[in-house]
Structure formats: C-alpha cells, structure tokens
Amino acid sequence: MGKKRRRSAKSHKKARIIFFRKVLRIGMLAIVLYICFFIYMRFYIRKFDDRLILSGVHAGTVDLSGMDQKEASKRLDQVVEKLSEIELTFVVDENKQKTIPLQELGFQIDNKEALLKKAMSYGKKGSTFSRYRAHKKAKNNRQNQTITVEYKVAPDKLEKAVRQAFYGILEEPQNAKLTGGGGTPAIVEEVYGETIDAKETVKVVNHFLNTNWNQQEGKVDVKVKKALPEVTAKDLEEATDLLGTFTTYFGEDGSKRAENVKNGAKKIADTTLMPGKEFSVDQKLEPFTEENGYYESSSYEGDEIVNSLGGGICQVASTLYNAVLLSELEVTTRYPHSLRVHYVEPAFDATVADDTIDFKFKNNRSSPIFIESIISNGYLTCNIYGKETRDPNRTISYVNDITSTTPYKKEYKASDDLLGTIVTERNGEEGLSADLYKIIYENGVETAREKINHSTYQPLSEKILVGTASDDPKKTQKMQEAIASQNEETIRKALEEINASNAKSTTE
Question: How many other C-beta atoms are found inside a 10 Å radius of the C-beta of residue 326?
Fold first, then answer.
C-alpha cells in the first residue's frame, strides 16, 4: 500500500510538471505573438503621415480628412468667410428690427487653435492599440470623429455695428436744459432714453450661434438698457445766473449768409459745459456741408473775399467769444480774421475754419455753465448761464487800442466795358493791428488793465474795373498795357491820350 501511494504521488507530480511546462510554452507563445502583433501595429501606424489629419475627422460638418494643419486652417477660414455672408436680424421689438451680416460682427471660430490641435492629434496619441484601431477605421472609411466648432463674435465690432444700425431708431436721452432766457431761465427736466446693452447682446448672439443656429439666417434679441442723459436738472440747479451776454446784427434779408448764421446758432444752442471741460466751436459746427445745413456765401481767404460753404459762420463764433469774455471763462484758442469784420470792433472777433482754425474755451468754474443762442429780427444773442460767484462790487469792460494801420492798394482790372469807363468793383479798407484790454473796476474805480489779445488784419485792396472795349485794336492794346502797369497815373494818362486822339479824329 505504501509503495502504491509513493508511485501515485510521483505520477501526479510528473503530470503537474508536464502541465506547467505546457502552460509556460503557451504563455511564451502568446507573448511572442503579442510582441509580433505589437510590432505589426507600430509598423502599420508608421505607414500614415503624422503631419496629416486622419480620414473621417470633421470640424462640425467640415471634413478635414488628409489635410495638414495649414490646409485645415485655411479650409476653416474659407468656411468662416462663407458663413460671414449670412445675415442675422436683430430685434428690439416688432417695430425696431435691423439686419446685419455676420462679417460686420467680427464673426469667427472661437476654439480654432484647440480644434486644429485636437484634429491633428486624433489617432496619434494614447496606447498603440487605440492608435492602431483609429488608423484601421480610417483606412476602412469607418472613422466618424466630429469635433464641436464653437463660434463667437467680436464684442467691439458687434457694439459698433448694432449701434450704427439702430442709430436714430432707439429713443435718445435728452439732457436737461435751460429755457426762457432774459435773465430768468427755467430748467427743463432731462429725459431718459434707451441704449444697446452690448455685453448682454454679445452673450445672446454667441449662445444662438452655438445652440440654435442651423447656419441659415435667423433672429436674435437685442438687449436694451436705460440710457442716462449727460446733464440732469440737478446739474443745472446752480446754473441759472446770467454770467455774460452779447448781441450782433446779421440781418433779415434771407441771404445765404443769414441762413448760415441761423444754422450755426442752432448748433451751439442748449449746450451744457461741465467744470474743467473744453468747448470747441469748430467741432460743434462742422462739417461745413450742404447736408449739414450750410450754403455758399462770402468768406475770407487770406486777403481775398471768396465764396465757401458756411460763409458767415464766424459771426456765431465772434458773438460767443464776446459772451465768453464777459463771463470771464478761460479762452484756450482764438484767432482773428485775416481781414476786418464789421459786426464787431477790431480784436473782438474770433474765426473758425473746417479742422484748421478753431475757437475754444474752458469752463474754469466749479459748477456747470449753460450756453444759449437766440435769433430774433436779424439779431444773434449768445447767453452764458452759471452760478455767479463774482463780487457784485467788481465789474469789467473791454476796450481795444489800434496800434498801427496799413494803407490799402488799388488793383486795376480790365473789363469788357466801353473804353474809358472806370467803375469801383470793391472799396478798399486799410489794415490794422489792435490790442484788446480787459479793464477791472472796484466800486466803479479802475484797479487793473489786462491785455487779452493782439490782432492783426491785412488791408483789403480796392478793385477798379477799367473798360477796354474799342473798335480800334491799338487803343484797346494801349489801355490794356496801361492797366498792366497797375499805376493810376499811367492809366489816366493813357485815357487822356486816347480821348485826345478821339477828339482829334472827330474834328478832322
């Protein structure tokens, strides 16, 4: 019995050894097979160009198969360019809707760089088996990997486009203002308006593009918020004292010049200037175009009088300049005319020219000021209101001092009138220089005199037309040669000789 048990144990031990040897052989074979398959997968993957996107990879609906990164980026740009032609309708309410193309909104792919990186790396990262599987599916056209495209618009461009589209449609806020004039103005309350809430509207548009958009035209809601006026009634509570007023006469003849003065007066009217702020007359009046209400009329250009759009507008600037002087506000920029004007005395004028010459002043007070302009029976009055803080015993006045004069010249010009006819086309005017002084009085006694400006005006030449028409070409030529000399004595001598010749011919 003992021997049989020992033989049986040896037999079982031998069987186990044989089994383990078989398992070991199978395991080694499996390892060898795995290594071979692993090597095969690696070689299989290497057959594909790592610089190209695998077949079946899409960015949304755009197929990027076989493209390198540069090509894929260009393809996405083409898609954006095409989609940018699509228009969205922005809706405030049923009566306030505007259509804007996506290209004006700065439409673009928000995740473009991340999207390209993901497309390029698909099937090229992870385990060898996962990469092999991705490449295999790509080769067999069974790959369907879609990367979500996220769109967005540029906030600054959307705000600009939407504001332009709804300009004049949304209710504009109205500043508080003074009315009534005559030293007893009343405050008109401000009115709140509505304005585009650009930040919230951008959120609405981006949400629409990434959730409900079918890449066709669509509608989005415009977010609107209350628009605050720049000037409130509270701002004007202390701006009801008349600080300075000045009036000039421009006439009621219905001329284009008169219309320009009226138009300019309207543009500077009802303006509130906060403490420390600067007022530019040119910015208020420009552009000098027909569309902005201006007509062609006479204006100065050097020492010549020419026609230009807005001619006469400087009378508005000069009238306001004098009101500013009387209000004792800070004049920061002022130029005199090149020639004298006759609606104010020398050195009391101010000129403006489109984007080149300006009249500016600053509110140097601690409270707001209000500018009013009034047109009545051919007169222009500029009033400046604010809080009066000056000593009532202190008064001011302004005087000018002519420091020099320059005589004008006479210019002779040939005309088609009968030879010997002399007509003054334009009277001349002497040039001059003048200083403007501010005189300060305390209880009626002069205590100080300050020089405000120095102004120089060119002389205006007198233009005289001399007739040259004659049946005798020699007489016409002689008269023209005399005119060319621009010498009055020579011209009159030539006329005398021609007249003497005519008298002699008549006698004969």
Answer: 19
Residues in the chain: 508
Could you tell me if 239 and 275 are in contact, meaning their C-beta atoms sit under 8 angstroms apart? Answer: no
Sign of the torsion formed by the C-alpha atoms of 180, 183, 186 and 191: positive
pLDDT block averages, 10 residues each, the chain of length 508: 61 72 71 60 55 80 85 90 94 92 94 86 64 58 79 94 90 82 74 91 94 90 90 85 94 90 93 93 91 85 73 94 98 94 95 89 93 93 94 96 94 88 90 97 96 95 90 88 90 84 57
Can you say whether the dihedral through the CA atoms of 117, 118, 119, 122 is positive or negative?
positive
The CA-atom distances, in angstroms, between 452 and each of 268, 333, 435 are: 24, 12, 7
- Is residue 197 within 8 Å of 225, Cβ to Cβ? yes
By three-state DSSP, how is residue 505 classified?
helix
What pLDDT score was predicted for residue 418?
86
CB 408 within 8 A of CB 431: yes
Handedness of CA 93, 94, 95, 99 (dihedral sign): positive
- pTM metric for this prediction: 0.64
Residue 208 and residue 13: Cα distance in Å, rounded? 76
What is the DSSP annotation of 468-496? EE-S-HHHHHHHHHHHHTT-HHHHHHHHH
Rounded Cα gap, residues 497 and 508, in angstroms: 16
Q: Exposure of 339 by Cβ count < 10 A (0-12 exposed, 13-18 middle, 19+ buried)?
A: middle
The predicted structure's pLDDT at residue 495: 84
SS (H, E, C) 182-210: CCCCEEECCECEEEECHHHHHHHHHHHHH
CA 97 to chain centre: 24
By the 8 A CB rule, do 62 and 52 touch? Answer: no
Q: How many other CB atoms sit within 10 Å of the CB of residue 78?
A: 11
Q: Which residues pair with 146 in a beta bridge?
A: 58
306: phi then psi, degrees, rounded to nearest 5: -130, 170
Q: Which two tokens stand for residue 218?
A: 């669509």
Strands 87-93 and 218-221, sheet pairing: parallel
Intra-chain end-to-end CA distance of the chain, in Å: 189
Query: Is beta strand 360-362 parallel, antiparallel or unpaired with respect to 278-280?
Result: antiparallel
- Pick from 463, 462, 461: which is nearest to 415 by CA? 463
